[in-house]
Amino acid sequence: MEKKTEQPTVKTNFIREIIDSDLAAGKNARRVHTRFPPEPNGYLHIGHAKSICLNSGLARGYKGKFNLRFDDTNPSKEEQEYVDSIIEDVKWLGGDFEDRLFYASDYFDKMHAWAVELIKKGKAYVCDLNPEEVRAHRGAPNEPGKDSPFRNRTVEENLDLFARMTKGEFPDGAKTLRAKIDMAHPNLNMRDPVMYRIMHASHHRQGDKWCVYPTYDWAHGIEDSTEGITHSICTLEFEDHRPLYDWFLEQLGIYHPRQIEFARLNLGNTVLSKRKLLELVKEKHVDGWDDPRMPTISGFRRRGYTPSSIRAFCEEIGVSKFNSVIDIRVLENAIRNELNKTAPRAMAVLKPLKVVLTNYPEDKSEELDAVNNPEDPSAGTRKVPFSRELYIENDDFMEIPPRKFFRMTPGQEVRLRYAYIVKCEKVVKDASGKTTEVHCSYDPATRGGDTPDGRKIKGTIHWVPARHAFPAQVRLYDALFTKREPEDVEEGRDYKENMNPASREIVNALLEPGLKTAPAGYRAQFERLGYFFADPKDSKPGVPVFNRTVTLKDSWAKAEKKQQP
Ligand code: ATP
Ligand code: MG
Question: Has this prediction a pTM greater than 0.90?
Fold first, then answer.
């Protein structure tokens, strides 16, 4: 038989095809150099993860280089906290930028000098129109714009005014520096775009050195060019800006990267926009950027996702030129597949119901063998204590069951995982009629859960021993938004109206004793309940707090089925 090679399969895509053809043509001395250029105005989300995995993955695959560059050209919204979190997230995802951490603000002097060069060439001018007037002069897609009355200032006048703008002689918004291209150009981005605006604002790295700041359109191509980026990969909305970047680089006569656009990631039942995520944080709809319900990288990390599962997800969804919404279950499947292989099993009861084994001796206790991971025999077994009183999941008992209910119900045998076959003999209720305890008999001949006489037991339920289990906080999560496309709202309505009021449920669970020492960051499968992660912030030694990363089965399919008539 032919031996299968263990090479990870790398799906080709249109970006890899472009790079392959550039390499074949010997472009850029056969270098591949990519970058991830975030603006430090918020925490990164899963859409950014797609860009990081794509760019750093290409660099790795082609033995090229990958830069992390902060596009910190707008001082008003940028903060050090965001810079720190972005570095942490990129590293966590495996984006290896080595020593190439750059800041666009480090190029401010150079950008300014190049702007002066364009003025000298008659390709840029100082304009006194205010932002509304600039907009009014801009025209529309089918209607040419109007020239600014300041468009024909002399080079000397422009140099003088730009120097005075730079010195801080004018208030915010009083003047701009604009490229002199064509106010009738069919592409609106080419209608004399603004290159510099006046902002008397402190910059997180430059302090008060500057009071003119470059626009994204002016700065971006220069940043890529300066770093020798060969393939500048960005999302589709920048396609219409490409002619402008081309124009700037041609006027300056400097190195020219190749821009390639791909469709951004949209994920169902959440929002991926830093502005909206900031709003959720500021208005306290969530507990911060790393709330496990947030679609941020730090949120997924705290939820219990691994970097490899997010990379697998990004590889799975691939890249294309068409916008679409990816189902959240694609992401859930990625982490489920991984944890199924790696996570040790444990037993926990989220909503406990007490069970007393009336024929089990009161003073007896024993230790039963439980399998740590059926997918991985090398993980071995562990001992779980067992005695007369236990807890089972409240939902696993029904006094009056529907058809095909194979769990615990009066008169029916059920298997306690790794323990014994038991049968409910009596239901104990409180004054209000609520079941408080279930009395069972157990069959001592079924230790380990096998039936020596071969009788069939259809149901197996999990349990924890009453005397040895310990209480712990467990948080169960559901989607942050009930609607698949929450931003799709009628005029005048707010996307936040689509928030899921039940996105988090906090329960006091009872856990098997071995979990007591689970350190922060520990991952386990709680049998039948899902994969759980010891919260790295809230867990204390001996007092773990668990977040459910994902359920065991596709709970979305179930929810959809329910909705069908
Ligand atoms: P947002 O739209 O969420 O506010 P942004 O585009 O303003 O994000 P940047 O910091 O400018 O955020 O993004 C850095 C890089 O990440 C850019 O190259 C951008 O193309 C890419 N990116 C942002 N959002 C997505 C997404 N949803 N899918 C793929 N790439 C994305
Ligand atoms: Mg942006």
Answer: yes
